[in-house]
Amino acid sequence: MPLQFEGQTEGVVAGRYWHRLEDGRVQCDLCPRFCKIRDGQRGLCFVRANAGGEMVLTSYGRSSGFCVDPIEKKPLNHFLPGTPVLSFGTAGCNLTCKFCQNWDMSKSRQMDTLMDRASPETLVSAARALGCRSVAFTYNDPVIFLEYAIDTAKACRAAGIKTVAVTAGYVTPDARREFFDHMDAVNVDLKAFTESFYHTLATGHLQPVLDTLVHIRHETSAWLEITTLLIPGHNDSAQELDTLSKWVMAELGPDVPLHFSAFHPDYKMTDIARTPPETLLRAREIAMGNGIRYAYVGNIHHKQADSTYCHNCGERLIGRDWYVLSEWTLDGGGACSVCGTVCAGVFEARPGTWGAKRQPVRLADYRVA
């Protein structure tokens, strides 16, 4: 008999990382919230639920939309530059960020949001047909649909297609190990570097995210980049940026790229002004002053601060004009063609030519029976 929840059978599968409590509730052990859920109820993330004393995922194979993006939009600047990535998300999230820039999907509490369906095999078929070198789990956090993401990653890996996770990294150690073992590249949204920010604006905690970053960097083969959305007056002080970049340097090393992105008023923080470009450029200078070799700005147009330079001789290795590559001076092995110093990242002999195009995709056209 198929699993069901609230009369729904499609998309409902057995969940992992949970245990049953003595009072009949189930405790979700996927993320540090440890939601304790009664029969017929959902966890805070919305997509994990208690169905008759069993934990289920209710969004397997269902998405809020599919699109082919430039890989730089994730953002990943050192992972197959210039190539297209098939991007999708589901609904829900395990954090409650008041500043969420994708709130229409991540904060959705309607299963009607999940209009399109795609099995892992269909995603592989679409990625191949569309010429995508990778598939990205994005728009909302893939940790909450771990079972679907891992099955898709396995199908992609078997077909020679890479997988990318765009995540806040809010996950428990056991789930963390399994999830990131299947990813080829990860961008972690490090929202701030204070516990008070995570507690007040995201109702979460900082330390689990730091633990995730250390795990990805030192215990997996996945390529790692980090993004911090700088919100005026909340996480953009010189002191906090100095502390953040020094921690990255000490715990992760100089080769993990940092992206400092501009906030725009949205969701529950419409009273905060946009981030001035000067704030992003100052953050980049602080990070590079602390030894970080690759630091970028996002959501503003600044060719110099978006480009990649050789940390040894200063040669511009990859020029970027928004999402369009304008220069490429890496040799076939990913090293500077001037001095021979290797640039950290995952590069092919030639860059992709996708550019800044954004192509919505209807997965029904590629569906595998």
Main sheet makeup: 9 strands, mixed
Strand order of the largest sheet: 16-15-14-13-12-11-9-8-20
CATH homologous superfamily identity of the largest domain:
Aldolase class I
Order of helices and strands: EEEEEEEEEHEHEHEHEHHEHEHEHEEEE
Structural class: alpha/beta
Distance between the termini: 21 Å
Number of continuous helical runs: 9
Mean pLDDT: 93
Any overview of this molecule?
The chain has 369 residues and is an alpha/beta fold. The chain has two domains: 45 residues, no CATH class; 251 residues, Aldolase class I (TIM Barrel, Alpha-Beta Barrel). It contains nine helices and 20 strands. The strands form five sheets. The chain has a nine-stranded mixed β-sheet with strand order 16-15-14-13-12-11-9-8-20. Strands 1-6-5 form a three-stranded antiparallel β-sheet, with no helix packed on it. Helix 7 runs parallel beside helix 8. It is globular. The model has no long low-confidence stretch (mean pLDDT 93).
Outline of the structure:
The chain is an alpha/beta fold and 369 residues long. It contains nine helices and 20 strands.
List keywords for this structure.
about 375 residues, alpha/beta, TIM Barrel, 2 domains, nine-stranded mixed β-sheet, three-stranded antiparallel β-sheet, globular
